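Weekly structure sync, notes
Attendees: PL (lead), two postdocs, one rotation student
Agenda item 3: pending single-chain targets
PL asked that the sequence for the first pending target be pasted directly into the notes so everyone works from the same version. It is reproduced below exactly as submitted, 201 residues in total.
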Amino acid sequence: MHSTVELALIRQNLRKSSLHREFQTKSKNELSPVNNDRVINMVACLELEHIPSQTFIVLLGTHLKSKQPFAKDRSEQTNVICQFINEHYSKHSHILLLGDFNGEPIEPFYNQILSTGLLSAYNTLLDHEPEFTTFKFRPGYNENDEKESCHTIDYIFYNPQGFHPLSYLSIPSKTEIGVNGLPSYEYPSDHLALATKFLII
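Predicted structure, written out during the meeting:
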């Protein structure tokens, strides 16, 4: 039986199952070489049942450490998330992993996620990631100077053995957003919304 679910409207078609996990894990006694502090990993895991198809869906949301120098921290955080997925779910589970990963696709965390068998929904549908998911201006070195910050750091990953992406929410151009970047009146967040419609298989 096939059924579709729109990620942006997921609460309309899903109900909570009896198991709702939220956990925080430390990487095994490893110290961050950047801030000399233990790496804290946070991910929310919500297990849901899709009512029409009676499909068990695992929704994982995360927000990895920000700033470009902390790529190793993001890699360590991702390693814990991938380990959790591998230990608790089979290769056939209906898994969605999404959030603000705070890193570009060239960083190690991206391939670490792909190594679990998950794929990026936007990359599948577009054959590449969006040009950017955040576009803003940060203060420069001089008082009246601003520096453009435009990056792809948000993703929707899915298990292709459980889902097939059908369509996606398009990303506006810089012209559509406006010269002041994000947030704006039309797009009231410093990150753009991502949404994918999936076929449950």
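Discussion points:
- The mean pLDDT is 80.
- The two ends are 7 Å apart (CA to CA).
Action: rotation student to compare against the earlier draft before next sync.
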